[in-house]
Amino acid sequence: MLNIALFGPPGAGKGTQSEFLIKKYKLYYISTGDILRKEITQKTELGLQAKSIIEAGGLAPDEIIVQIIEKTIKENPDSKGFLFDGFPRTYIQAYILEGLMIKLNTSLSCLISLEVDEEESVKRLLIRGETSGRKDDNEIVIRNRLKEYDDKTRPVLQFYKERGIYISVNGKQKIEKVSQDIDAIVQNELSKRLFNIVLFGYPGSGRGSQGKALAKKYDLEFVATGPMLDQEIKEQTAIGKQIKSLYESGQLVPDQLVVQLIEKKLEKSKGVKGFIFKGFPRTLVQSYILDGLLKKHGSSISMVIDIEVPTLELIRRLDARSKTDSCMPYDTSTAKIVKRLQEHETKTVPVIEKYNQLHGITKIDGHSHFDEVFKLVSKEVENGMKSMR
Prior knowledge:
By secondary structure, this protein is of the alpha/beta class. It has two domains: 2-27 and 79-191, P-loop containing nucleotide triphosphate hydrolases (Rossmann fold, 3-Layer(aba) Sandwich); 197-388, Rossmann fold. The protein contains 16 helices and ten strands.
């Protein structure tokens, strides 16, 4: 999720640049004044509380403002991100927003500050006053508003400088150049986001081969639980010894061990553009685990792909594979093949249905030759990567 706070003194051009960001990046615009007026108009509980305070000559307190912001964010779960204008205005509100972002399992991507000196702001606002007829655009009022910005809002910038997400833009440039500079900042932020794919498909669908090829082509890290478990056994690690013991006794490897290996993979793979997960999650429980692991590392699932192949073709492929060196334990007989396909249907298909509701599933016809399927998958992956930008 792309969350941006846009700062700048009165007359800096925030309105124009907000329109640019909203249109290009499909962000949901949060102006505290707008959402407060909406709550009052709709006569919600929070709106009525705010109205009574305002009518008595007071300002809506932070307690009400933050609840309205939280409500707005929760009511727009499909948004690609939020653009904050007019919040946070104070140092205290900066802490409030940070806490709210943590509660909602997200964070502020960056704070963009349009820098314009006082005289330029005054000049722009006086011109605006001449054309708009706004009574508050006279020099005395303007300088008072600028002083209030310097006293109350400018200190907030230091809060975000300390967190390393403050970026300034020269707001005195032409509008188009300011937009270009802002766009470059946003593109840089988006480039830091990992592109994570979960690759599904019945045994025999070719997801392993497709996953490895995709990882190589797009510089992604391929995460397959089977090879990871085998590597631990080969290296005779403490976890590997536990896995070997479980294998020898005919038991399944518990999620607790698998999670440790995946987390280790995530931590070690610094500098990668993203991950392709194959073979995990296989169950609903594992899907919740993966969501949690990615969130812990500041990431999330970007795309879910399901490679579809007719059942008879799956059986034919698995039977053919059983006669090669690539034979898997469940390939050795038709009964085992059918059992493994049934297991996927009962345990993994519900996971696919869950992800379809949350993210939408990209379905790929995997019946064709490897190269044809790879073209189809690659096209969808590239479209997915573009949509993140």
